[in-house]
């Protein structure tokens, strides 16, 4: 009888332990491009840092989730999500109609304009006439890539696609391309403010194209993961409401945090 009681007690303890684990938040694998400061990069010690990293850490804390990172080049982020390498795209993406065909998005978190960067004194502008016969570097599968394909490539501008943004800047410095097109904050923090970007500047103002640039930037999930989608949206709403998102954003950027979800 004593053995029987011991077994019952052990089973009860095991069940209690399992319930405690189940009471924790979800385990979330996060795909992240780590070559895109100030949104996500690595410091000298190899630790992840940046705006998207801090937002995701805050989301994971809010959900009491066990989060892990899966480093992935930008142009592989969506395919990695759809093949279940991870559960969430942590590198914020412009919420566009084209991407929304295959990916579910959280409510928009913030908005970042797109601008051209070129050597100082080049007199280049983000127009077909100014860039004809020039080579422009873009991050593959980004909204900058889509815009350049629609507005530049048909008019004699050569586009050069890259898997990560840092490679774009390297080729710009070496003269392999004449200009780069990317979101303005990434260009400002990740290149123009550095010693490598000393001889470069924005060429022309922010571009406008609501259809291609979307209603803001959000996190991507599989369409089938409706419960996780709702959990992350709820966490983001709470972080907006208590000012956490604003505080994180202003540590790294001059971007506009979007207070309400845009209408679809």
TrEMBL record:
Principal location listed in the UniProt entry: other
Domain Solute-binding protein family 3/N-terminal, chain residue ranges per copy: 27-256
Subcellular location: Cell envelope
InterPro entries in the cross-refs: SBP_3_CS (IPR018313), Solute-binding_3/MltF_N (IPR001638)
Signal sequence annotation: 1-22
Keyword Signal: yes
Keywords per UniProt: Signal
Any Pfam family the entry gives: SBP_bac_3
Similarity annotation: Belongs to the bacterial solute-binding protein 3 family.
Name used for this protein in its record: ABC transporter substrate-binding protein
Taxonomy of the source species: Bacteria, Pseudomonadati, Pseudomonadota, Betaproteobacteria, Neisseriales
């Amino acid at each position: 009888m004593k053995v029987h009681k011991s077994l019952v007690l052990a089973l009860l303890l095991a069940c209690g332990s399992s319930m405690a684990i189940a009471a924790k938040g979800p385990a979330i694998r996060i795909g992240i491009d780590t070559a895109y400061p100030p949104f996500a990069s690595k410091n000298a010690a190899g630790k992840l840092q940046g705006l998207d990293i801090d937002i995701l850490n805050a989301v994971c804390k809010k959900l009491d989730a066990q989060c892990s990172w899966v480093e992935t080049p930008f142009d592989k982020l969506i395919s990695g999500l759809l093949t279940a390498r991870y559960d969430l795209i942590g590198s914020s993406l412009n919420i566009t109609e084209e991407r929304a065909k295959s990916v579910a998005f959280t409510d928009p978190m913030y908005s970042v304009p797109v601008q051209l960067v070129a050597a100082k004194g080049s007199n280049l502008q983000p127009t077909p006439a100014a860039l004809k016969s020039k080579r422009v570097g873009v991050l593959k599968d980004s909204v900058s890539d889509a815009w350049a394909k629609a507005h530049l490539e048909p008019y004699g501008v050569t586009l050069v696609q890259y898997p990560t943004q840092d490679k774009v800047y390297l080729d710009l410095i070496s003269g392999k391309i004449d200009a780069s097109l990317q979101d303005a904050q990434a260009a400002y923090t990740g290149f123009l403010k550095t010693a490598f970007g000393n001889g470069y500047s924005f060429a022309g103002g922010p571009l406008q194209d609501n259809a291609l640039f979307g209603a803001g930037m959000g996190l991507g999930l599989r369409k089938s993961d409706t419960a996780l989608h709702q959990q992350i949206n709820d966490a983001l709403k709470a972080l907006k409401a208590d000012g956490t998102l604003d505080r994180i954003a202003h540590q790294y950027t001059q971007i506009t945090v979007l207070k309400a979800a845009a209408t679809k």
